[in-house]
Amino acid sequence: MRYVRKEHVITTICNEDVDDNDNINSVLNNLKDNMVEFSLSVRKYFPSLGNHKDTNYSKVRVKNVSGDNADFMIFDKSSTTHLKGVEFNNIVEIHAITTVDKILKTKPDATRWDFLDITED
């Protein structure tokens, strides 16, 4: 049996505006290679409104990056949608949160109660 304890510590590693297409390409390829899920805000043009509107997706992965375009897979509760050919200048924000998993190795006489975080109020 393996005991896995997840510890959620949120630290901002990067919070910057990226304008260079090479840097955007590098970020998207890193997200794709590491299969990181993230939230995505994309600017879309709606002809019925006559202007642009930001659309948010909560669970997204990069499918492909080519040139100045990217393809995304959007995971919804019951379906998967493909968003193809999104230009880099239409990407408003990518918000990625990752977790670190720690596998605890302990002596055989330790019980699961030894690993609980107990706080006193």
Order of helices and strands: EHEEEEEE
Determine the strand fraction and express it as a percent band.
35-45%
Q: How does the overall form come out from the CA principal axes? A: globular
Helix-and-strand structural type: mainly beta
Give the strand order, joined by hyphens, for the main sheet: 5-4-3-2-6
Instruction: Give the averaged pLDDT, no decimals.
Output: 81
**Helical stretch tally:** 1
Radius of gyration: 20 Å
Largest β sheet strand count, sense and barrel closure: 5 strands, antiparallel
Sequence stretches where pLDDT stays below 50 over 5 or more residues: none
Range of helix content: 10-25%
The number of distinct β-strands equals 7
| Tally of discrete structural domains | 1
Question: Regarding quaternary structure, how should these chains be classified?
Answer: single chain
Distance, first to last CA: 33 Å
